[in-house]
């Protein structure tokens, strides 16, 4: 049995009536699209209505904190899921964006006072990114977007 993973929630949460914002980057689009779909499908299975899920895009992951902030100021979301895929290149670009974006998303929860789900993959290779979106040939891992959808419904319902 796998040790890693979300684990069973304390109860089955019902997402009906929740309003969810998804803001996703457009870099590494193939992986992003699968993650966004995974998150939406999971939330719909947990009762969230598709019309209550609002999706917006930003250019890259660095833009996620500002995009999520502005969007959540415009709409009455119960939870927001920023989704981005950072893949290490040959410079320090990856390290700076990974750290800055993570810190900003963490702080964002305090300023907008709704849960912000951490939908950011920080991968050293393309293969790692594909696997975490359930897209590698071996299907070695599940689509992490599903975890983010489940976390969103739980966090928005529980608190
Ligand atoms: N290299 C990746 C980026 N880089 C772009 C930045 O996030 C940003 O959009 C740009 O510097 C303009 O401010 N973004 C990703 O989401 N993923 C990457 O792998
Ligand atoms: C978007 C950039 O600035 C780019 O040159 C970063 O390069 P790398 O992804 O190889 O680190």
UniProtKB/TrEMBL annotation:
<comment type="subunit">
    <text>Homopentamer.</text>
</comment>
<dbReference type="InterPro" id="IPR036467">
    <property type="entry name" value="LS/RS_sf"/>
</dbReference>
<keyword id="KW-0808">Transferase</keyword>
<dbReference type="GO" id="GO:0009231">
    <property type="term" value="P:riboflavin biosynthetic process"/>
</dbReference>
<protein>
    <recommendedName>
        <fullName>6,7-dimethyl-8-ribityllumazine synthase</fullName>
        <ecNumber>2.5.1.78</ecNumber>
    </recommendedName>
</protein>
<comment type="pathway">
    <text>Cofactor biosynthesis; riboflavin biosynthesis; riboflavin from 2-hydroxy-3-oxobutyl phosphate and 5-amino-6-(D-ribitylamino)uracil: step 1/2.</text>
</comment>
<comment type="similarity">
    <text>Belongs to the DMRL synthase family.</text>
</comment>
<dbReference type="InterPro" id="IPR002180">
    <property type="entry name" value="LS/RS"/>
</dbReference>
<dbReference type="GO" id="GO:0005758">
    <property type="term" value="C:mitochondrial intermembrane space"/>
</dbReference>
<dbReference type="InterPro" id="IPR034964">
    <property type="entry name" value="LS"/>
</dbReference>
<keyword id="KW-0686">Riboflavin biosynthesis</keyword>
<dbReference type="GO" id="GO:0000906">
    <property type="term" value="F:6,7-dimethyl-8-ribityllumazine synthase activity"/>
</dbReference>
<comment type="function">
    <text>Catalyzes the formation of 6,7-dimethyl-8-ribityllumazine by condensation of 5-amino-6-(D-ribitylamino)uracil with 3,4-dihydroxy-2-butanone 4-phosphate. This is the penultimate step in the biosynthesis of riboflavin.</text>
</comment>
<dbReference type="Pfam" id="PF00885">
    <property type="entry name" value="DMRL_synthase"/>
</dbReference>
<dbReference type="GO" id="GO:0009349">
    <property type="term" value="C:riboflavin synthase complex"/>
</dbReference>
